Amino acid sequence: MTFITKPKLHHPKLPTNQLGLTHRDYEGAVSTLCAGCGHDSISAAIIQACFELDLPPHRIAKLSGIGCSSKTPTYFLGSSHGFNSVHGRMPSVLTGANLANRDLVYLGVSGDGDSASIGLGQFAHSIRRGVNMVYLVENNGVYGLTKGQFSATADKGSKSKRGVMNTDAAIDMVGMALQIGASFVARGFSGDKAQLVPILKAAITHRGAAFVDVISPCVAFNNHLGSTKSFDYVREHNESVNFLDFITTRAPIKVEYGAGTVEEVRQHDGSVLRLRKVAEDYNVHDRIAAMNYLQERQAAGEVVTGVLYLEAEAQDLHDYLHTVDKPFNTLGDGELVPGAAALEKFNQSLR
Ligand SMILES: Cc1ncc(C[n+]2csc(CCOP(=O)(O)OP(=O)(O)O)c2C)c(N)n1
Ligand code: SF4
Ligand SMILES: [Mg+2]
Question: How many Cα atoms sit within 13 Å of 48 on the Cβ side?
Fold first, then answer.
């Protein structure tokens, strides 16, 4: 069975957000993933982020490909729009939906197999076009759903559960996202919800292509000694460059930090990101420096997490294409059928 509805009953005094909704209103069906799977922790972080952002569930669209990771949209945001597409094809379906209705928040949920193997081209082109979305890769280094084959993000030299060594070079999706123009790039860890929730909130409110790689251990096939995507390995080698506090314009800023350690970045929608620097000289606005830093730390065996790159005033695909401000599905006959005179004028302009 892959779908179990949750009982609607809940405690009458659950905290509510600005919309009067509780955390439960952002949940989905009961998860059928393996107990302890990192993907379930990411679903919990998405639920919390959307609850805290006061997002109306019907204004969110969640799209996915195929894999255990791509199954997860069933387990969160049960009242939102959803489309479980074909393996590796989530980005083109999301791009089409976004072009038709620019007013929704788009969550593209994918796996390392879905995005770094069969969907690599789709991933790359949706990012370089600047589609306004959160592109989330739940990265466990294996094809979990098909029983644990190495994926393209598995590190060279890492070992499978049966002791076989991976001899192929790894694709670093964060490095690729930086190189092909993502305007927001972050990496989180499913075992660190305190870091992941604000990263997701910042990615959701970012306008443009926001890429978030979340290391999400597969407890069934890739959580052993010799794996570089296990809970133990990531905990031991995790190097955070910053911690993030996400502040909407409504919330008063209360927390104080030492001078020089905090940077405030105001986003397009007025929300403020407070970045507490851990790596003193890390500059979140320098794409090339970020790429160099990541490569250096990776060569040293570390897993760099945090907000890695941010272009606060980025543009998106609609800006580049000069589309109308209104969602296409709200346009009336007058706008869609402008008449013979307008058509003639347009035809003249092409002659
Ligand atoms: C066209 C096509 N090719 C292959 C498959 C088989 N398949 C299903 S899921 C999957 C890999 C999923 O890996 P990943 O995206 O990393 O998700 P995970 O299960 O690890 O979360 C593959 C190869 C398929 N469903 N469709
Ligand atoms: S096989 Fe791995 S990725 Fe799939 S549900 Fe189980 S632990 Fe999660
Ligand atoms: Mg995977």
Answer: 15
- The protein residue whose alpha carbon is closest to atom 8 in ligand 2 is 37
Distance 159 CA to ligand 3 centre (A): 15
Residue 248's alpha-carbon distances to 186, 190, 265, 292, 327, in angstroms, are 19, 24, 12, 32, 25
pTM above 0.90, yes or no: yes
pLDDT at 259 over 80: no
Substitution site in 34, 43, 114, 161 for ligand 1 pocket (most atoms within 8 Å of beta carbon): 114
Helices (H) and strands (E) in the chain, counts: 12, 13
Q: Quote the ligand 2 centre to 228 CA distance (angstroms).
A: 16
Cα separation, 173 vs 67, in Å, equals: 17
pLDDT digits (tens, 9 = 90+) for 317-337: 999 999 999 999 899 988 889
Token digits of residue 324: 């109308």
Q: Which residue has the tokens 């870091």?
A: 195
Residue pair 239/302 in contact (Cβ under 8 Å)? The answer is yes
> Which helix (H) or strand (E) covers residue 134, if one does?
strand 133-139
Ligand 3 center from residue 67 Cα (angstroms): 7
Nearest-angstrom CA–CA distance, 43 and 77 = 9
Distance separating alpha carbons of residues 37 and 138, to the nearest angstrom? 11
